[in-house]
């Protein structure tokens, strides 16, 4: 019996797990995918919003500003990069100026500090690359940037280090209210898909449990943080009060040499569909453009489109005419969980059941405050929150070898020679960092998991050089055949059959070596 089951291992579920893991509670996190941060938390703008956009009095307004205030300290504890770079909402017309003034007034009512309106020349002093057509801008100095999936991974890893359990491939099929708890049953997994490494790594479960047809857990309290599927989970528990509609957002990512072109996050004047096409540096030095905003019905449609990417390019050029679009290295798409109420849906429809749904922008910013808010709701329903004496809020990040000095690199290599082998040349990621990602909570189980933890495969070649070597490391460390290594879970195997080279018993040569 668990005290709390959290459904969904995105940023909301991750912050909830970390906050609750500081107390003497038995916690499990249920995730239907092969890894954490597999939904919207891996594909968003990575912006800590200041809080001027949300309507005063809404949960979005309250929790955005509170989350923004909490974020710097949380990222320091979790060892996650955080850069307070400030933002500009740019305007091209007098109509835009009116909206920008409305945003300033709204931000003041929400408690945002330091807001001021600049004319076009003042804005270009901050960002010389801005279009000459920009006549005004709202400057928000408290805006910041982070890496959304790195924050999610760190939060869940810290929760696991403090005793929380992570159950992957747990696709919830049934929720039943018992006398003193909820019973949650997963959908029967496809034949042959269940294994110890995928489903129980990082938990105390015995390997023989992994061969069961389906798993069933019981928890006194259940928190629904299932992202775009939160309405489906709520319906399983008997709550039909809201609907989640996916909103597609497409992005373009430019090479790291472009990160210095822009120092602030630059927004267009917002519309009812969102904040428009933005341009922002990332904490890793890239330049990010997007997102589009398209309402869908299909919750699996994460394909980029020719029209969507063309829209990003058109709007980006209007804001920043000299942006080097020949430096684009990849595109991607995320689905935001747009709720039917227009606000975050945070409630308790039945005793012991809590919804954290409709967590679209500014959900990443608000996540720590959402966790704080729901913990108060849990306490109001009788949950005893007794702090652990051995609670460890700090998390040691996987060492970023490329940022070390020559002396530091030599010291690291003397302690562990695997750090002397560079696997990803584009991002200078070593074998030692990849092995750490495999053996640190929550452990990376596939190529995308390695990518999100180390940046290997994120450079100019997008894994063209290093992917086979990383797959070999996953094969070796998990003791599985090379052809069972996946990009992002079952069904995405990268080598469906064995070539004669591997059939002869040879292993993949590491970078810098011959075939032997």
Query: For the record, what is the CATH homologous superfamily label of the largest domain?
Result: FAD/NAD(P)-binding domain
Query: What is the general shape?
Result: globular
Number of helices: 14
- What percentage of the residues does DSSP assign to strands (E)? 15-25%
Count of individual beta strands:
22
Helix content: 25-40%
Q: How many structural domains can be distinguished in the coordinates?
A: 3
CATH architecture of the largest domain: 3-Layer(bba) Sandwich
CATH class categorisation of the largest domain:
Alpha Beta
Over all CA atoms, what is the radius of gyration? 23 Å
Q: Between the first and last Cα atoms, what is the distance in angstroms?
A: 54 Å
**Uncertain parts:** 194-211, 512-516
- Kindly report the CATH topology of the largest domain: FAD/NAD(P)-binding domain
Supply the helix-strand structural class: alpha+beta
Largest sheet: 8 strands, mixed
Mean pLDDT: 91
Describe the structure.
By secondary structure, the protein is α+β, with helices and mostly antiparallel strands. The protein folds into three domains: 172 residues, FAD/NAD(P)-binding domain (3-Layer(bba) Sandwich); 153 residues, D-Amino Acid Oxidase, subunit A, domain 2 (D-Amino Acid Oxidase, Chain A, domain 2, 2-Layer Sandwich), CATH 3.30.9; 103 residues. It is 30% helix and 21% strand. The chain has 14 helices and 22 strands. Strands 1, 2, 9, 10, 11, 12, 19 and 20 form an eight-stranded mixed beta sheet that branches. Strands 13, 15, 16, 17 and 18 form a five-stranded antiparallel beta sheet that branches. The protein has a four-stranded mixed beta sheet with strand order 6-7-5-14. A hairpin with a 5-residue loop joins β15 and β16. It is globular and about 65 Å long.
